[in-house]
Structures are given as structure tokens and as C-alpha cells.
Design goal:
By secondary structure, this protein is of the alpha+beta class. About 55% of the residues lie in helices and about 10% in strands. The radius of gyration is 27 Å and the shape is extended.
């Protein structure tokens, strides 16, 4: 009986492009009049500097900024590089996880904006006292001043300064190029699309290798530096040296859209050898030494693979 060859699913069915767009009001504005006044005072050119007013207390936007930062970090973690247009590769296997995560952040973002709107008049009143003669009601979306009394008759002007949106679009697919052209020109464009997609996926693959390599190398460095003395602990490490590695190993099979077997194998080895409870790593010299050696050995093997793939292996230097 002859075996039938089953074609590999098209890449466009295994991944898509996804962007995360978060807009926020900065609560800062360039005050041209004050900038010119300062330049005149110091006999300087009007282009010598800019005076930017802080329109609200720093705490007013903290929660919104925190949510936006966390959402962007999670979006970047769950996707891979693509181009410079804001879109990143989102594997189909990670789509539901990514959608749920972004929905969670969006559900936090909206109420945080509502909380700002509800307290906006109060924040603006505080700013009026702090800014003195630099205060201008027109700097504040939705705020009006009537007989020196500040009100907010148009709260949607402020809400309109904030948005949280994800967009999804298909990967370019040379086989789906349907423009009516001559066969030779169509073939040339299809080859160009294929080459572009393959080059972008090489970048995505390098990013995945680098993520795992960085985390493994960092674990080895931190465990080797850890030392208990009579005066206490030298070079302590945070739980994140392990928990970050757990996150990467968990998401890696879903992000490996090229199906790189070497990467899959190394991720499995990391899961078996390096995902040790941080408490045990601190209390057991044997566990710490063994895990550090295993991490160093895996990192060295990864460095060899990465050199063969043309990926510059750069170890992390920052603390976890």
C-alpha cells in the first residue's frame, strides 16, 4: 500500500498578524508663552528649550499607565517580531490565550479611565492651585470655566483621548495572490512575497531563540553568584529568574510557528532540568549547584545552535 503525503498546512493557517494600539492622554503640554518668557529672561534663543506643563498630579494617571504597560509587555511576550508597522506574528495556537489576556486588560482599562473622569474636576482644581498663572482651562479635555468655576459638561472629550484596541489581519500568502497579471510577473511577485515572509519568520525565530537563551543564561549567572556567608546572603536572586523561565517554556510551543525541532527539544530539557522551586535553590547548595551547571550546559549548547543559525548570542546583564 502506498502512503499518501499530507501537505504541511499553509503558514497563513498557522499564524496571523496582530497589533495592539493603546492611546492615552499624556497630561502634558508645551507652553509656548512660558518657553518664550524663559528664553527672554535668559537672553536665549526661543529654540533653546521647551517648557512642558504637567497638567495633573502624577498619581492621576498611574493606574491607566500601569495597565497599558502590562498589556504591551504581555502582547510582546505572546507574539513575535514581524515588521515596523506595529504588527507582530500571533500564532494560531496562541490566539485564544492572547485574546483572553487582552480582553482582561481592556476590561481593566475602561474602568480606570472612568475613574479618572469621575475625579477629573477635582484633579483640575488641584492643578489650578499648582500651576498658578500658567493654568489654562482649555488645556483640559471636557473642562469649562464659568465665572472662575470649573465644570466638566463634556466628559466624552476626555474619554475620547483614551482607547484600547487589538487588530488582526492575515499573513501575506503568495498562493492567494489573485491580481490579474502576466504569468511571469505574477510568479515574480509571488516569489517576492514568499521571500519576505520567510525573512520575517527568520527574525521571529531568532527572537524566540534569544528569549530562551537569555533566560537560561541569566539563571546560570544568578545561581553561580548566589552565596551564603556568616554575614548573610551575597548576590541574592528573585523568584523571577525561575518564574520568567516557566512562562517562556510554557508559551514557546505555541510561538514556534516554524516548528523548529531543536528549539522544542531544548525547551523540554529546560522544563526537566531547570524549573526548580526558587526556595529549594536558596536552601539547597546541591540543588543550586546542579541547576546552575545544567543551565550553563544548556546555554552553551544553545549558543552553538544559534551560531549555526547566524543568531548572535548575547547574554543578559541586567538583574531579574
Amino acid at each position: 500500500m502506498s502512503s499518501l503525503s499530507i501537505p504541511e498546512p499553509a503558514l497563513s493557517s498557522r499564524a496571523m498578524l496582530c497589533s495592539l494600539s493603546i492611546s492615552m492622554w499624556s497630561a502634558r503640554i508645551h507652553d509656548r508663552a512660558v518657553s518664550e518668557e524663559i528664553a527672554t529672561l535668559h537672553r536665549a534663543s526661543v529654540n533653546a528649550g521647551r517648557y512642558n506643563k504637567l497638567l495633573l498630579p502624577k498619581t492621576a494617571l498611574e493606574e491607566i499607565q500601569k495597565i497599558a504597560q502590562e498589556a504591551r509587555q504581555e502582547h510582546y511576550f505572546m507574539t513575535l517580531p514581524w515588521g515596523d508597522d506595529g504588527y507582530r506574528v500571533l500564532p494560531a495556537a496562541a490566539y485564544m490565550d492572547h485574546t483572553e489576556k487582552m480582553r482582561t486588560y481592556a476590561n481593566r482599562f475602561g474602568p480606570a479611565v472612568d475613574a479618572l473622569v469621575s475625579k477629573f474636576e477635582e484633579f483640575v482644581a488641584q492643578a489650578k492651585n499648582q500651576l498658578g498663572t500658567m493654568f489654562q482651562p482649555s488645556d483640559y479635555p471636557g473642562i469649562r470655566e464659568d465665572r472662575e468655576k470649573l465644570t466638566m459638561p463634556a466628559p466624552n472629550e476626555l474619554r475620547g483621548k483614551f482607547s484600547f484596541e487589538t487588530k488582526v489581519m492575515p499573513l501575506p500568502d503568495a498562493a492567494d495572490f489573485r491580481v490579474s497579471l502576466g504569468d511571469e510577473e505574477k510568479m515574480r511577485i509571488q516569489r517576492q512575497i514568499t521571500a519576505t515572509v520567510e525573512a520575517s519568520l527568520q527574525v521571529a525565530s531568532r527572537d524566540l531563540w534569544q528569549r530562551l537563551f537569555d533566560a537560561v543564561s541569566h539563571l546560570a549567572e544568578r545561581l553561580k553568584a548566589y552565596k551564603v556567608t556568616t554575614e548573610g546572603v551575597e548576590h541574592p536572586f528573585r523568584d523571577s529568574v525561575v518564574t520568567n523561565l516557566v512562562k517562556i517554556v510554557d508559551i514557546l510551543p505555541k510561538l514556534n510557528v516554524t516548528g523548529d525541532p531543536a528549539l522544542e527539544t531544548l525547551a523540554s530539557e529546560v522544563r526537566v532540568a531547570l524549573l526548580v522551586d526558587p526556595k529549594e535553590l536558596r536552601t539547597s547548595d546541591a540543588a543550586r549547584v546542579e541547576t546552575a551547571r545544567a543551565a550553563e550546559a544548556i546555554a552553551q549548547r544553545m549558543a552553538g545552535y544559534m551560531t549555526g543559525y547566524g543568531i548572535p548570542a548575547a547574554t543578559r546583564s541586567e538583574a531579574a
